Amino acid sequence: MFFRVQKKKKKKKKKKKKKKKKKKKKKKKKKKKKKKKKKKKKKKKKKKKKKKKKKKKKKKKKKKKKKKKKKKKKKKKKKKKKKKKKKKKKKKKKKKKKKKKKKKKKSLFIGEVGLMVP
Questions:
Q1: Other beta carbons less than 10 A from residue 36's beta carbon
Q2: What is the CA radius of gyration of the chain?
Q3: Backbone phi, then psi, for 105, in 5-degree steps?
Q4: What number is the average pLDDT over the span 23-49?
Q5: Which of 7, 8, 25, 69 would suit a FRET pair with 54, their CA atoms being 20 to 30 Å apart?
Q6: Measured at the alpha carbon of residue 16, what is the angle toward residues 10 and 17, in degrees to the nearest 5?
Q7: Percent of the chain beyond pLDDT 90?
Q8: Has residue 61 got a pLDDT over 70?
Q9: CA angle, 5 then 10 then 11, to 5°
Q10: Which pLDDT score is estimated for 64?
Q11: CA–CA separation, 103 vs 100, rounded Å?
Q12: What pLDDT is recorded for position 99?
């Protein structure tokens, strides 16, 4: 009879160990860490999608620039006609140079008078 009583006491002690709250607290902490990691992965996926949209827009802009270059070549032909007008202005400048030569002759007369005074 004594052996049976001792066995019953041992079984009760094992049940108390399973009911401890310490084991439950450890499980809750692990679950919180896993949730934080999942949120970070979602943010990275959104950034990659935005980069793909920018590449498509750049291809469309390059096609528009090529069409504008053809229009600029036609404007250069009109500028050649304006150069002929500039040549007419050069002929007028030659007449002004003749007037400057007359002024230099007058300065020589003033120098001669200055030498005669002393």
A1: 8
A2: 51
A3: -65, -35
A4: 70
A5: 69
A6: 95
A7: 0
A8: yes
A9: 100
A10: 72
A11: 5
A12: 65
Q: Report CA-CA distances (Å) from 68 to 7, 56, 61.
A: 98, 20, 11
Cα angle 52-54-55, degrees, rounded to a multiple of 5:
70
Return phi, psi of residue 21, to 5°.
Answer: -85, -10
Q: 34 in helix, strand or coil?
A: helix
Average pLDDT, the chain: 67
d(CA 53, CA 68): 25
Q: How far apart are CA 95 and CA 92, in angstroms?
A: 6
- Tokens in use for 40? 């970070």
- What is the rounded CA–CA span in Å between residue 4 and residue 11? 11
Q: What CA–CA distance (Å, rounded) separates 90 from 96?
A: 10
- The Cα–Cα gap between 72 and 68 comes to 7
Q: Which residue has the tokens 């009109």?
A: 78
